[in-house]
Amino acid sequence: MAGISGIGMDKSTLQLIFDPFFTTKEKGRGTGLGLASAYGIIKNHAGMITVYSEVGQGTTFNIYLPVSDKAAYRDVPIETGLVTGLETVLLVDDEKMVIDAGKTMLEKLGYRVVVAKDGAQAVDTVKMKGDTIDLVIIDLIMPGMDGGKAFDLIREIQPAIPVILISGYALSGQANYIMQRGCNGFIQKPFNISKLSQKVRKILDEA
To answer: Is pTM, for the whole model, over 0.70?
Structure first.
């Protein structure tokens, strides 16, 4: 359960909050995809999310996920099977939580990490430091310049640089089109350190 105090939402707003691109924020301050992404991820795990809100009081979200029927074994250390590296990775995402978690995981795997908060900043970073960057990991949906446009511009600057696309949505639509244009890999969010380590090492070794 997650609760926030604040202005709350009326019934008409509540009916729209899980729709992609719906936002109550002012223009340029949000993509309207946060709750839509959360809804999709929860549904993919056979769960459900409910919301209760009162105007002037705040909003409460309840998330329900099924209990696994598999026992959890911890005899083997969770780090087993991780593959590491020493290369430099440019991590691009507009969500601070994703940047912080991704940076921590990559650094734990031995990589040097440069971060950018949107597509435009990523392109500028590649212009300035492209020769020192070995891999770009970039989010698909971001305000301003999205991952697809940034991917095209990055490839114009550094045609051989490998790129991994990340998204809270499955590989379809725009993401699939970017893959067809030569993007090297795709990881669906949320991802764990094991999945990240395997994909990053595979793409770097193939580059």
So the answer is: no
